[in-house]
Write a structure and sequence with these properties.
The structure holds two protein chains of two kinds.
Chain A (H helix, E strand, L loop, with lengths): L15 H18 L13 E6 L5 H12 L3 E6 L4 H4 L3 H10 L4 E6 L4 H8 L3 E7 L5 H15 L6 E5 L6 H12 L3 E5 L15 E3 L2 H4 L5 E4 L4 H5 L6 H8 L3 H4 L7 E3 L12 H4 L6 H20 L3
Parallel strand pairs in A: 1-2, 1-3, 3-4, 5-6, 5-8, 6-7, 8-9
Chain B lengths: L1 E11 L4 E10 L2 E6 L10 E3 L4 E4 L1 E6 L12 H11 L1 E6 L10 H13 L6 E6 L13 H6 L4 E2 L9 H12 L5 E3 L4 H4 L4 E2 L2 H6 L3 E2 L2 H16 L5 E3 L5 H12 L4 E5 L1 H5 L21 H12 L5 E2 L8 H4 L16 H10 L6 H15 L15 E11 L18 E11 L2 E4 L2
Parallel strand pairs in B: 1-4, 1-5, 6-7, 7-8, 8-9, 10-13, 11-12, 13-14, 14-15
Antiparallel strand pairs in B: 1-2, 2-3, 5-16, 16-17, 17-18
Helix pairs in contact in B: 4-7, 7-8
Classes of the chains: A alpha/beta, B alpha/beta.
């Protein structure tokens, strides 16, 4: 079994069997992570470069751990700010790294399409670790893995993505992946943070969390960024918390146990109340654990089927 | 110079002629027009076999990049590109460095045009509406007209201040030249890289909403209603709503005109899915519905002119992340092919109307003398083969830059020669 593409650029258009294969493969890697010796040899002799053009702690650590546990050699760098302001173009940076004989590249970049761009200019396998507001496919895969683990299936599962959907790559990748896997997906947020014509992706749009909560199995809560307030997209964090923050009070309207997810890092008591983030509803830490297993699965599938 | 065009099909909206004719040209003038003309053996004969002779085409929206950005294009390479595309005249936009906002720059550009490519291409500057294209102080319009400017635009930037736009319309009305607006409310489009809609939502690329265009067009038309002596031209119109505003204003008999680029009637925003930065232009590619509306507006005459917005950029400038890439594509050498393929072949325009949109109408808008194809007149002609099929190859472009989304596209129709200012280039 192998994937249809030699890159992981996004979940838009990824066939169902590929998603299935990644999620199934991740099960065995999750088991590996529970062993006393957490290292296996499949990527021995492969070199992976983690190119982070945007600051990131957890995604980079998660990728590095996954790579090392597959016995790959790993080089990483983080440069905050765009490649353009640095004076060297992304293309030149990538070509230089490739000249050092790299087999796989993991890229995080603020420009949508950066991973696509890279896949056209280098021969290595390219893994998108987040490109602007476009996609963050491994995050959505680990979200789906976590949900499948907890609910048994994704088919028919009712998932609502809450918050700043416009600027969220996590939201997009989740929508594409979950729709392919047969889930019902909705989004809920202020009208200023829901992108135009998103309903054409097959999602329902809500602006009131209290309408959503009685009818969902899962809330995937997005991080809200203060700079959106500065750009006039919402009036204040206080108002945001009152109307779109997920709280125990709003959760009282639930008719069944609801799973709460968050891609991190959390703004406690802004998009989610602190007590809820730490409650039994929350799978936030399982997401982090599963992240390593899912990334191992993706790296393994791309790195061994060339 | 003497040359005999044999068995051409003259398509001339000025005289209303559409017939098979020979034309004998001597010393830059049309010596004789008729059937079965003959000349001395020494006179080169161009057998046209029914191919088209039209009044010389003008592209009223071109970026020649000189002075200031000669690594992208020069007046010379731009004129070579124009010749290859079948144009005997171009209007160059003022976003150079320095900007065309004073006499000396306008004169430089205008004169330089005469010194390159044997002077076959007339280069008419469009001067800046405001000094430095900063949007705050009117440029010396009367002096600029004196130096050869045929219109005013801050192209690339809209004139955002309603007050400045009002004054520009008033002042330019004294000289009967159009104000050409890059219609975009930049408070709405700020930071965008493509059309806002379903595709931008999927791709996560910041959008430029279509309303940014129509809002500016509506504002300007409102100003024009207040200053009816002025003339207002919308550059590269791209949205259904903006075209509808122009249509209504024309019914009111306001002096408003507009142009469209070939890419805005050919490509829809879905091509951005490739993340090919040669699909990034401003205004952005719109939706399929907009494409249909654009073609209808060409048919019913709401859109007066086809102009390319020829915007050269180097490979290095374009081969970057989508949101970082500069806007614009080259257009001179694909314009006729795209127009015949998309408009004439699909029955939106007759050849007659095509010639109007590339020659008669833009010259009228710019108050340039109309081209008369008659004995004793100056020969200013474009020769076209509307049947020839060819494949776009950017490596063959005469333009210094190769940034075109049409590389590899099969087209029907091409220029086969131009004649102007006593010179001929026949390249079939």
């Amino acid at each position: 079994m192998k994937l249809h593409s030699r890159h992981l650029l996004g979940l838009d258009g990824m066939p169902k069997e590929d998603i299935q294969l990644i999620l199934d493969t991740a099960i065995s890697f999750k088991e590996v992570l529970e062993r006393p010796i957490k290292k296996v040899p499949p990527l021995q002799g492969k070199t992976i470069a983690n190119m982070f053009f945007e600051s990131s702690t957890r995604t980079r650590l998660s990728f590095e751990l996954a790579e090392r546990r597959l016995s790959a050699d790993v080089v990483s760098f983080t440069t905050v700010g765009s490649s353009v302001t640095k004076g060297e173009t992304l293309k030149d940076t990538a070509r230089n790294i490739e000249a050092m004989k790299i087999d796989m590249v993991v890229i995080r970049h603020s420009a949508p399409g950066a991973a696509h761009f890279l896949s056209r200019v280098v021969d290595a396998n390219v893994l998108n670790a987040g490109d602007g507001s476009h996609e963050h496919p491994t995050q959505a895969l680990l979200d789906m893995f976590t949900l499948r683990d907890r609910h048994g299936t994704l088919e028919g599962l009712k998932v609502c993505i809450v918050g700043d959907v416009t600027h969220s790559r996590v939201a997009r990748s989740n929508i594409f992946g979950l729709k392919t896997m047969g889930a019902h997906v909705s989004v809920c947020g202020p009208a200023t943070l829901i992108p135009r014509e998103i309903e054409k992706l097959g999602v329902d749009v809500y602006h009131n969390l209290e309408d959503v909560i009685p009818n969902v199995d899962v809330l995937n809560v997005l991080r809200i960024q203060l700079e959106r307030q500065e750009r006039g997209l919402f009036p204040s964090l206080r108002e945001y918390h009152r109307f779109f923050g997920v709280t125990q009070e709003k959760m009282a309207r639930a008719t069944r146990p609801i799973t709460i997810m968050h891609p991190g890092p959390i703004n406690r008591d802004v998009e989610i109340s602190a007590d809820l983030a730490d409650s039994e509803h929350s799978v936030i830490l399982q997401q982090v654990t599963n992240g390593v297993a899912v990334r191992m699965a993706v790296l393994y599938l791309l790195g061994t089927t060339n | 110079m003497k040359i005999l065009l044999k068995a051409g099909r003259l398509v001339d909206p000025v005289s209303g002629k559409d017939e098979a004719l020979d034309i004998l040209i001597a010393d830059g003038r049309i010596e004789k027009i008729g059937k079965s003309l003959s000349a001395d053996k020494s006179v080169p004969e161009i057998p046209l076999n029914g191919k088209i002779i039209a009044p010389g085409f003008i592209d009223m929206h071109v970026h020649l990049r000189e002075p200031g950005f000669e690594h992208k294009e020069t007046i010379e390479t731009g004129c070579e590109s124009a010749i290859a595309g079948g144009f005997t005249a171009v209007c160059c936009m003022p976003n150079t460095n320095p900007a065309i906002d004073d006499e000396s720059v306008a004169r430089y550009v205008h004169e330089k045009g005469k010194s390159v490519c044997e002077g076959i291409v007339d280069v008419y500057p469009i001067a800046a509406v405001t000094k430095g294209r900063q949007g705050s102080q009117l440029s010396p319009m009367a002096e600029l007209v004196g130096a050869g400017a045929v219109g005013f635009s801050d192209d690339g930037s809209p004139v955002m201040s309603a007050e400045i736009m009002r004054r520009a319309l008033e002042y330019s009305s004294m000289y009967n030249v159009p104000i050409i607006q890059h219609a975009e409310d930049s408070t709405l489009s700020h930071g965008g890289s493509m059309n806002e809609g379903y595709v931008s939502t999927r791709l996560g690329i910041p959008g430029i909403p279509p309303i940014a265009e129509v809002l500016m067009v509506e504002r300007d038309i409102t100003l024009l209603r207040y200053i009816p002596a002025a003339r207002y031209h919308v550059a590269h119109v791209s949205t259904t709503d903006a075209v509808e505003s122009v249509r209504r204003a024309k019914k009111e008999k306001l002096r408003v005109t507009c142009e469209i680029t070939p890419h805005h009637f050919t490509l829809a925003d879905e091509v951005v899915e490739s993340y090919d930065t040669n699909t990034k232009m401003n205004p952005p590619l719109r939706t399929r519905d907009d494409l249909r509306a654009m073609k209808e507006a060409l048919r019913d005459g709401t859109i007066d002119v086809i102009a390319t917005d020829h915007a050269p950029h180097t490979v290095d400038e374009k081969e970057v992340e989508y949101t970082h890439a500069p806007f614009g594509i080259v257009g001179l050498e694909t314009a006729i092919g795209l127009s015949i393929t998309e408009l004439v072949e699909q029955k939106f325009l007759t050849l007659f109307q095509l010639v109007e949109k590339y020659s008669t109408n833009p010259r009228k808008i710019l108050s340039l003398p109309s081209i008369k194809i008659a004995e004793g007149e100056t020969a200013n002609l474009t020769l076209l083969d509307p049947q020839i099929e060819w494949t776009v190859d950017v490596k063959a472009f005469k333009s210094k830059s190769k940034n075109s989304p049409f590389h590899g596209r099969k087209l029907k129709g091409k220029a086969i020669g131009v004649i102007n200012n006593g010179k001929a280039r026949i390249f079939q």
